[in-house]
């Protein structure tokens, strides 16, 4: 049955890819990828033209009354401190007041604190309307299981038709839990390819050929040089929030089912989709051993396991090698802008294949609180931030000529010291509505959509795991992972003692039961 699902999905997506090819004037400059397209059930009725750049110029008033009552929405986002945030929010509110009689109260929580603070807010049933959620932070599945978020299907159809239609329906299927959508996607790069950006000046100084890098181990000569000769720099941007765990999945073609800190995964090349405990796999042990070796050689700070936010080091240009999280056309320009550099100051290297999985698709979303007093207005806001270019770009870049400038060709440059430069456009809405930064190339949004469509497809797109039967075991295993992954994932712990200890505690916490339940649900899904 899984084979039938794969073939049916491939046929539908081939139509989507062909349509994109006809509409896109520029050829793909993306790396070679599998011919298997990504969005497993992307329907032909989803307009490809709408999904490439912007579905609509501005939100419509579909199903909205002529006169709306004034309301205030509280939204939580994650990011580094921005001194001029209120000025930007005030500018956004001018648009929101006019369009949907809404005032936005935007709260920003730093990267190191967001996960825990949102847990407290949700557990205490504190009132708010919208929050950022994903499998990797403010865990989407945990929140759905707790009943923290409202189902969005009906709200989307009535109050956000244009933003919804801009994203092919196959991608929305990845958000479903129990058949319902609880997270509103931010349309951006869904295909995932591991990438690093190597500073050209440091590589030249070290006599290192950045283009020679094909896999992570090829980086070691440059890391060795930096550790021994450039004490003012750090080798590579990783942190104690899991260390290299962000790369484990694509390096070993692994897709985690629940989240990165919970046992249970499949190999995306396995069409039978057999579940296993990724932490106990030989591949993970190999990665643990590699980073342990690098740690002992002095390539990472001794306190790397406790470092949770690398933003300050990034902005100060402290890293010789930047981890990009995932490759995307134009992404290097965004990364360089954070350090007041340009894309030309780096060489970008891809270190994995390109594939699309559920976790990659739902890596950036917004949930609406079950305690929201204005869920309809919250959805109207999501329609606006995803379709109104002026509103979205104000959130991304701030106020023109105060926080950013545009040259004659429309490219954006950040004003030094302006107090607003989060450089997390992917977090706020449909990124294909964003202005282009200086150093980025016009047309990259279309290339990104094409990259999404041509990525290797996970065999279980559309499968959503019901955590209910093992919710206790999931919570227990997460607690164990949070104790051990920061030290194992950064090489800070002895593998021979701590890895067996980690796996034993996971087993006692219920890892075997979780994997078995995943397999049971996968088998049932295959038969549908």
Work out the helicity level. Answer: 40-55%
User: Could you tell me the strand content as a percent range?
Assistant: 5-15%
Low-confidence stretches: 1-63
Q: What class do helices, strands and sheet pairing give?
A: alpha/beta
- N-to-C span: 7 Å
Number of helices: 21
What is the average per-residue confidence, as pLDDT, rounded to a whole number?
A: 85
The largest sheet has its strands arranged as 2-1-3-14-6
Largest sheet: 5 strands, mixed
- Shape by Cα distribution: globular
Count of DSSP E strands? 17
Report on the architecture of this protein:
There is one protein chain. This protein has 528 residues and is of the alpha/beta class. The chain is built from 21 helices and 17 strands. Helix 1 (2-23) runs antiparallel to helix 18 (444-454) and helix 19 (471-488) packs antiparallel against helix 20 (495-509).
């Amino acid at each position: 049955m899984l084979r039938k699902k794969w073939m049916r999905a491939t046929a539908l997506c081939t139509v989507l890819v062909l349509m994109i090819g006809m509409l896109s004037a520029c050829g793909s400059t993306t790396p070679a990828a599998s011919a298997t397209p990504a969005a497993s059930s992307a329907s032909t009725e989803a307009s490809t033209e709408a999904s490439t750049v912007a579905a609509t110029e501005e939100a419509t008033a579909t199903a909205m009354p002529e006169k709306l009552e004034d309301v205030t929405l509280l939204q939580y986002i994650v990011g580094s401190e921005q001194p001029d945030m209120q000025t930007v929010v005030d500018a956004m509110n001018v648009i929101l007041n006019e369009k949907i009689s809404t005032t936005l109260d935007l709260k920003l929580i730093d990267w190191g604190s967001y996960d825990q603070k949102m847990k407290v807010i949700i557990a205490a049933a504190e009132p708010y309307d919208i929050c950022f959620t994903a499998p990797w932070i403010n865990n989407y599945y945990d929140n759905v299981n707790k009943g923290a978020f409202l189902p969005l299907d009906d709200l989307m159809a009535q109050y956000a038709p244009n933003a919804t239609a801009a994203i092919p329906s196959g991608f929305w299927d990845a958000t479903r839990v129990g058949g319902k959508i609880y997270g509103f996607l931010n349309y951006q790069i869904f295909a995932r390819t591991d990438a690093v950006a190597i500073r050209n000046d440091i590589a030249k100084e070290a006599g290192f050929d950045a283009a020679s890098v094909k896999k992570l181990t090829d980086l070691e000569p440059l890391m060795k040089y930096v550790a021994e000769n450039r004490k003012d720099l750090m080798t590579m941007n990783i942190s104690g929030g899991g260390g290299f765990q962000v790369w484990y999945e694509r390096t070993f073609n692994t897709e985690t089912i629940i989240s990165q800190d919970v046992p249970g995964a499949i190999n995306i090349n396995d069409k039978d989709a057999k579940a296993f405990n990724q932490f106990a796999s030989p591949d993970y042990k190999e990665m643990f051993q590699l980073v342990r070796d690098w740690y002992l050689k002095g390539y990472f700070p001794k306190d790397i396991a406790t470092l949770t936010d690398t933003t300050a080091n990034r902005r100060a240009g402290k890293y010789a090698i930047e981890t990009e999280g995932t490759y995307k056309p134009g992404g290097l320009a965004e990364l360089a802008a954070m350090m007041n550099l340009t894309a030309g100051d780096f060489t970008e290297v891809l270190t994995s294949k390109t594939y699309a999985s559920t976790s990659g698709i739902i890596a950036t979303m917004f949930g609406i609180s079950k305690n929201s007093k204005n869920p309809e207005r919250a959805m109207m806001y999501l329609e606006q931030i995803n379709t109104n270019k002026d509103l979205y770009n104000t959130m991304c870049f701030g106020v023109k000529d105060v926080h950013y400038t545009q040259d004659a060709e429309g490219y954006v440059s950040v004003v030094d010291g302006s107090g607003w430069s989060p450089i997390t456009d992917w977090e706020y809405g449909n990124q294909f509505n964003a202005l282009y930064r200086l150093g980025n190339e016009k047309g990259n949004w279309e290339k990104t959509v094409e990259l999404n469509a041509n990525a290797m497809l996970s065999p279980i797109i559309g499968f959503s795991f019901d955590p209910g039967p093992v919710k206790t075991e999931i919570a227990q295993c997460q607690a164990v992972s949070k104790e051990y992954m920061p030290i194992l994932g950064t090489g800070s712990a002895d593998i021979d003692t701590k890895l067996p200890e980690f796996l034993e505690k996971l087993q006692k916490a219920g890892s075997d039961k979780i994997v078995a339940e995943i397999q049971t649900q996968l088998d049932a899904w295959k038969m549908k």
